[in-house]
Amino acid sequence: EVQLVESGGGLAxxxxxxxxxxxxxxxxxxxxxxxxxxxxxxxxLEWVSSIDGNDNVANYTDSVKGRFTISRDNIESTLHLxxxxxxxxxxxxxxxxRGWKSKMDIGTPRGGQGTQVTVTS
Length: 121
Known about the structure:
mainly beta, 4-stranded antiparallel sheet, 10 strands, 6-stranded mixed sheet
């Protein structure tokens, strides 16, 4: 049974950093592209970043390029998102999912509850 559990969110000041994690189980982790999405209150779900199975190719939405870094640990079946130089507009609930720019697990029993990031001074 596929299961994704996000963690690592919290409160940060503008310019600060957080490191999100997504613990994956129930599928062959290395075989899947993985992605992060986020959703702020009153806004649509937004793709943030994706990474290939071998941790070689990553892509980012323009608003986070140079500030966020996606990575994965295929031994531990864990996906990470390092958030640096945080801005107030980064405040949102962050979700991980399988697939390249795919929402396939979000909002399903497979997906997690997300992890809240709040950036405020």
